[in-house]
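Late entry, evening session. Most of the bench is empty. Finally got around to the prediction I had been postponing all week. Sequence below, unchanged from the version circulated by S.P.
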Amino acid sequence: MLYRPLGRTGLTVSEIGFGAASWWGKAQFSEAAAVRLVHAALDGGVTFFDTGSSYSGGHAEPRLGRALQGRDLAGLVVATKAGTFAAGGGRVMRDFSPPAIVASAEASLRTLGLDALPLLQLHGPSVAELTDELRRALADLKARGLVRALGVNSFDPAVVDHVIGLPDFDTVMVDYNVLRPEREPLIARAAAAGKGVLAGMALAMGHTGLQVAKLRAPRDLWYAARGLVLHRRDVRDGARFGFLNRLDGLTGPQAALAYVLADPHVACAVVGVTRLGHLRENLGASGLELSPAVVARIRATQEQRLSG
């Protein structure tokens, strides 16, 4: 596993991160299997774990805390999110008021079993919600030693652009993958401002490998339904990149991750998994480089997608 600095935070992270979210955190997925995946990630050199208080109906964050119990946490960067919360019935609610954010951070500390949060990210705020009052509350969390670094997770370029100009925030998490080349100038601006850049959705939810058509278990049905309902265009466009699954010497997911990590401004590509084989495959992408011919084909396919 290779490691990269997380902007100017002073933190170093594995270039492949573990996304503790979605089906991994749900009660329907075996806790024992979920814990085995975390331990395998640790043994494979992963030092960045990303979760959120609202993920998996509120179950992902405490599950990650239990999975980390008894393990050496020195050098780990455990990131969680505040601003959204699970309200039952599959609903996710928003509250970016300073008291709610502070309470969420304090609850996450207890849930994760940490004395301080290495990284607290606001989960999808609007520009209007990033008030001076909220930023003062976040600064106070840092001053109290409860949070080491602050970030914003947003797939809205306007929000990320705004955050780049705010000195309070140390990192940004954006949706960056072969289907999102338009994020590259934004990533470069963030890095130039000293922000650590995290790539969320680094595998484009498996759409380049048409995972929606590979149904082997209930988890596959869940991911397929989510993709077809929420990300139909990505499912369609992902088929254009099917050639990534026919390369010599590396798998489709490894090629997709190598593309993301070829950007030197990206500190970590975050990927969620529910199968040990997929985890090992992803970890094997660390240090891989795509040939110029493959990069050229990716770029040509991206241009076709954007023009068509």
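Two things to note before I forget:
DSSP finds eleven helices and twelve strands in the chain.
The domain at 10-307 is CATH 3.20.20.100 (TIM Barrel).
Will write this up properly tomorrow.
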